Amino acid sequence: MSFSLNEVEATAKRAARGAGYAWGIAEEAGKATRWLCAQGLDGPAELAKLLDMGFAGSLDQHMPQDLTADWVGEKDLCPLTCGAALSDYAKKWQADPLHLRRVAVPLLLLPFVAGAVRRQNAVATITLDGINAVTDGTRLSCPDANAHRADSVTVSTGGTLETTRPRQTRATPDPASWDVLTNFAFRTYAPATEQSRLLGAGAGLSDND
Questions:
Q1: Using CA atoms, how far apart are residues 115 and 30, in angstroms rounded to an integer?
Q2: Which residues lie below 8 Å from residue 157, measured CB to CB, with a gap of 6+?
Q3: Which portions of the chain are predicted below pLDDT 50?
Q4: What is the rounded distance in angstroms from the CA atom of residue 99 to the CA atom of residue 97?
Q5: Residue 117 class from Cβ within 10 Å (0-12 exposed, 13-18 middle, 19+ buried)?
Q6: Cα atoms found within 13 Å of the Cα of residue 75, Cβ hemisphere only
Q7: CA-CA distance, 183 to 179, in Å (whole number)?
Q8: 87-98: per-residue pLDDT in tens?
Q9: 155, β-bridge pairs
Q10: Which of 4, 60, 63, 105 is the most exposed place for a label (fewest CB within 10 A)?
Q11: What is the distance between the alpha carbons of residues 147 and 41, in angstroms, rounded to a whole number?
């Protein structure tokens, strides 16, 4: 099935929230998933892989222990929380390359780097286990990739945008991955109660027809 980018963003946001992430990070997850789809990558599949890992319940183990050196966590780093930190620490890696170790679903880092360089009117290179992705925030030069994990990630300014990926206005995600997102998103909907049914649409206890 084909979905608009708005549908992708909304579903991804609710899925991340349903998986246990705070609303702020969930909103970032929605935007990141949308950005990947706009670049012709399967953003929902990437987010589904991460949510299935269940990081949200123990995020302190999946965050960098020291932001002044190489970023490494007690366990594999979460790309959503690290992505938000990359935005906050953009001046640091724009001055010197930043190295991250053991990152889960590393493609989810790309939208956060893209947002930072777009604001600075710059270009950045993200190297994922030797594979280079270059972006100016809007365009992306990157081969197809589908990694569950990267042992080494480097983020730095500079790079050459060669063959960029065609921009997309709709997404056709992997059906199984989309089901994962919708199942997580379903957790955010409160179950119906007798009171909510009476206050909602419909005749309730009275039917005048």
A1: 14
A2: 93, 94, 117, 122, 123, 124, 125
A3: 195-197, 199-209
A4: 7
A5: buried
A6: 12
A7: 6
A8: 888 888 888 999
A9: 98, 126
A10: 60
A11: 12
Say what percent of the chain tops pLDDT 90: 78
Average pLDDT, the chain: 90
Q: Residues near 61 by Cβ (< 8 Å), separated by ≥ 6?
A: 73, 74, 75
pLDDT for 191 equals 65
Give ∠ CA 140-153-150 in degrees, rounded to 5. Answer: 100
Distance CA 41, CA 44 (A): 9
Residue 53 is predicted with a pLDDT of 97
173 neighbors 38 (Cβ within 8 angstroms): no
Q: Is the dihedral of CA 197, 199, 201, 205 positive or negative?
A: positive
DSSP the chain: --EEHHHHHHHHHHHHHHTT--HHHHHHHHHHHHHHHHTTS-HHHHHHHHHHTTGGGGGGGGS-S-TTSSB--SSSBPHHHHHHHHHHTHHHHHHS-EEEEEEESGGGGHHHHHHHHHHHT--EEEEETTEEEEE-SS-EE------SEEEEEEEEE-----SPPPP-SEE---HHHHHHHHHHHHTTSPPP-HHHHHHSSS-TT----
Within 10 angstroms of residue 4's Cβ, the number of other Cβ atoms is 13
